[in-house]
Design goal:
With about 50 residues, the protein is an alpha+beta fold. The protein has one domain. Helix content is about 45%, strand content about 20%. It contains one helix and two strands, in the order H-E-E. The relative contact order is 0.14. The model has no long low-confidence stretch (mean pLDDT about 80). This is Lipoprotein.
Length: about 50
């Protein structure tokens, strides 16, 4: 059972690393223009432009 928890923990750490790396790589890029849906988190910004 410990290996299941370790695998889950490792996958979450990998996800956090990938999200942090993606946030660092997109740092300084201009936000998308236009009306749409936007979600902003401390390290991640997701924007969906309208039709």
């Amino acid at each position: 059972m410990e290996s299941v928890y370790r695998g889950f923990e490792t996958s979450l750490l990998g996800l956090a690393f990938c999200l942090g790396l993606g946030a660092c790589l997109t740092l300084g890029t201009p936000p998308a223009s236009g009306d749409g849906f936007a979600v902003t988190l401390p390290m991640l910004s997701v924007t969906l432009t309208g039709p």
